Amino acid sequence: xxxxxxxxxxxxxxxxxxxxxxxxxxxxxxxxxxxxxxxxxxxxxxxxxxxxxxxxxxxxxxxxxxxxxxxxxxxxxxxxxxxxxxxxxxxxxxxxxxxxxxxxxxxxxxxxxxxxxxxxxxxxxxxxxxxxxxxxxx
Length: 138
Fold this sequence. Notes:
Elements: E1 2-5, E2 9-11, H1 15-22, H2 28-33, H3 37-42, E3 46-49, E4 52-57, E5 61-71, E6 75-80, E7 87-97, E8 100-109, H4 116-137
Antiparallel strand pairs: 1-8, 2-8, 3-4, 4-5, 5-6, 6-7, 7-8
């Protein structure tokens, strides 16, 4: 497995609040619709469906991730559905202080070594986009 860590973001919420938000994806659909146009534009290609997240990954196409593991206050794991190669997104959470949380998205993917030079940059972009998505929603 190759691991691509996205840019860590600090959110002005407690770790319990962040966990509650990222472990229940169903609550985001209505929230996204109420965002100003500028923030909705940053989320173009991202759609929340109950316990799943659909996103358009650059150079890859549509990907659907379903929540498969929850560790309260620490992490949420989403596996890609229908992906030809094993792929998961892990959202790690760590309390920065009493009122803020550092969220670090990671993409774990099993790609052949010969394809890493071609796909690695695109996967890194997707990992970084997850941080942007949650920054926009908090």
